[in-house]
Design brief:
Blueprint lengths: L2 H11 L1 H4 L3 E5 L3 H18 L2 E7 L4 H9 L4 E5 L8 H15 L3 E5 L2 H14 L3 E2 L4 E5 L2 E8 L4 E6 L5 E5 L16 E4 L29 E5 L10 H10 L3 E4 L1 H6 L20 E5 L5 H7 L4 E6 L6 H4 L2 E4 L2 H15 L1
Parallel strand pairs: 1-2, 1-4, 2-3, 3-10, 4-9, 5-9, 11-12, 11-13, 13-14, 14-15
Antiparallel strand pairs: 6-7, 7-8
Helix pairs in contact: 5-6, 7-11
Length: 338
């Protein structure tokens, strides 16, 4: 790196260069963007900045008003000429926006694409990046991020010493603000520069799906290796049916190894992260990889024949017993009450 580029990098990181004019929020997932806007509004008050949401690509006009009523002061629409939203071009657009208007904090949705995008943005701007941030706050004038590490065995506390701070935020970390239909905001279209890259999307194969949406479910009944064969899953289907308004979930072996359920149902560190009001774990031991995906559930009920199973450490209620004996009795008891 040349002396000139080093001096430019230092200038970009200085507060007087950036001006700390805005908190930038971007995700290709509109629901996640609205969740992030909740925390962005809170932090913007402490940073004395406006909240700017970004929409990239064509045909996004109808999404602008939704971002405003959920907390954005301004929505920037750009990249309308892009037919394929790759991380190379999108990172160029976000960097150009940050340099043009100033940014104290850039919040990017922690999807698979979002994690790659955040790494590129932080590298191009020469600033720090914190991934999968579950908690953001100000301390002594600095932005701090907390994230789960070592498969849920620890929490890393990271403090930013440069601006903008780039973070990725996972789904369900924050609840979206109630929609304020009377809220006023500004929508602008900008032609921001981006480079030309040789990569292209050749083919997209749709993921095999059974239509389950565990991330938005309010009640989840999950199964694990405590079940002896796939036909026995009908037991948790009966339990879920008795509870009404349910979604089926599972631990990694059921979806990834045995293929008894599709990956739509997989809950855990490498699967889906969920935050239902009720989570019932049936025959799930509770290894850290699974717990990392459901630890934020409202009420956790565990059924396992091993009294020392780790799942009981995070459960609010636990039943120690053979699930083949417990589940039929539990189903009948619920049906009798409802």
């Amino acid at each position: 790196m040349t002396n000139r580029s080093l001096s430019l990098l230092t200038a970009y990181q200085r507060k007087d260069y950036w001006g700390d004019k805005m908190v930038v929020v971007y995700s290709e997932n509109q629901k996640l963007a609205c969740e992030m806007l909740s925390k962005a509004r809170e932090l913007s008050a402490e940073l004395n900045e406006k909240v700017t949401a970004v929409l990239i690509g064509n045909g996004k006009d109808q999404l602008s008003s939704e971002l405003i009523i959920h907390g954005a002061d301004k929505v920037v629409m750009t990249g309308a000429s892009l037919s394929d939203l790759k991380a190379e071009e999108v990172s160029d657009l976000l960097c150009a926006l940050a340099k043009e208007e100033g940014a104290g904090l850039m919040m990017i949705g922690s999807s698979k694409d979002g994690k790659e995008l955040a790494a590129r943005v932080s590298s191009k701007l020469g600033v720090g990046c914190s991934t999968d941030s579950k908690k953001l706050y100000m301390r002594d004038g600095s932005i701090c991020s907390e994230r789960v590490v070592f498969s849920g065995n620890g929490v890393a506390v990271e403090r930013f010493t440069s601006r903008p701070a780039v973070v990725t935020v996972p789904p369900k970390a924050y609840d979206p603000l109630p929609a304020d239909v009377g809220r006023q905001g500004e929508t602008v279209r900008k032609e921001l520069p981006y480079g030309t890259y040789g990569s292209r999307t050749v083919k997209v194969d749709p993921m095999l799906s059974e239509g389950a949406n565990v991330e938005d479910a309010e009640k989840i009944v999950s199964c694990g290796r405590g079940f002896k064969n796939s036909a026995d899953i009908k037991l948790i289907e009966e339990l879920a049916g008795a509870l009404k308004g349910y979604t089926l979930g599972c631990s990694r072996p059921i979806a990834a190894d045995l293929k008894w359920l599709s990956e739509d149902h997989w809950i855990g560190l490498s699967g889906h992260k969920v935050k239902p009001k009720l989570y019932v774990a049936c025959g799930i031991s509770g290894q850290v990889q699974h717990v990392a995906g459901m630890r934020d559930s409202g009420l956790i009920v565990a059924i396992n024949k091993d009294a020392n199973a780790p799942i009981f450490k995070v459960a609010d209620y636990g039943i120690v017993g053979d699930l083949y004996q417990v589940l039929p009795k539990l189903i009948n008891a619920i049906k009798a009450r409802t």
